[in-house]
Amino acid sequence: MGKQKELNVREMIQEKQKAVSFNNLTEKFIPRFLFIIAIISILTTIGILYTLLSEAVHFFKDVPFLDFFTGTELKPLGANAKFGILPLLTGTVISSTIAMFVAIPIGIMSAIYLSEYASENVRRTLKPLLEVLAGIPTIVYGFFAFTFVTPLLQSFIPGLESTNILSPGLVIGVMIIPMIASLSEDAMSSVPNAMREGALALGATKLEVTWRVVIPAAISGIIASFVLGISRAIGETMIVTIASGSSKNFTFDVTQSMQTMTAYIVEVTGGEAAAGSTLYYSLYAVAITLFVFTLIMNLIAQYISKRFREGY
Fold this sequence. Notes:
By secondary structure, the chain is mainly α. It folds into two domains: 2-62; 74-307, MetI-like fold, CATH 1.10.3720. The chain has twelve helices and two strands. A two-stranded antiparallel sheet has the order 1-2. A hairpin with a 6-residue loop joins strand 1 (74-75) and strand 2 (82-83). Helix 3 runs parallel beside helix 6, helix 5 (138-154) crosses helix 6 (166-189) and helix 6 (166-189) packs antiparallel against helix 9 (219-234). The chain starts with a helix and ends in a 5-residue tail after the last helix.
């Protein structure tokens, strides 16, 4: 009986040692595995940047760097081809600006209602419905802008061309409303109720609490949502490709057809640009410019979030 008990204890000790050994092995393996997973995104970014730079170098051998970034004419085809990116930059900036004029007011007002005025049941219903807009394919938005919004605007603006930058700008604004509304609402909801209750106890109205307490406390998240919305607008492709046309006009007239950087990339990749030609390499020059634009927007968003973040 004593020997049997001794064997059972020994087996239990051996099993415990095996379990500890397995746990130690797991503890050593898991951090390395997670590090590899985390480094993949960094390596992917480096790979994309290397690809763009290595190909863009060939373009800048044929087209001077200064001419590319200051040129107002973009005529990639023909014997006297000209590669000035300002028409594309103008189209991108104008469409993004129009989009933000639509998305910021509607998005912030929606966030205020959901965070401060809506009941819990209403919030649970409206927020998912609002976020449905983010799930609609952008090509559907593009056809909506071309077949519905543009004809509607032409009834108010007779000089509006069938392809223009105004219509896609408005529709892009509608598309990014859920991003701004959702992120801003999350930032406002994270403000402690004690701050609201304290302001109400001092005699402030609900509106005063919203504008003077909640929004200043959540300003870092709100501004970050604006910047991320701008990044999304800058990178939009299908809406502007379908509804804004392919005219490379350097103009500030929103009723005319213009082209953005993303639309130009689609045009070149979908065309018959011969590999190794200047037109082909211009694709990478525009892409690296777009990459830098988006990177700057993301860095600004991170800086704002850290600079104005409130700790509770």
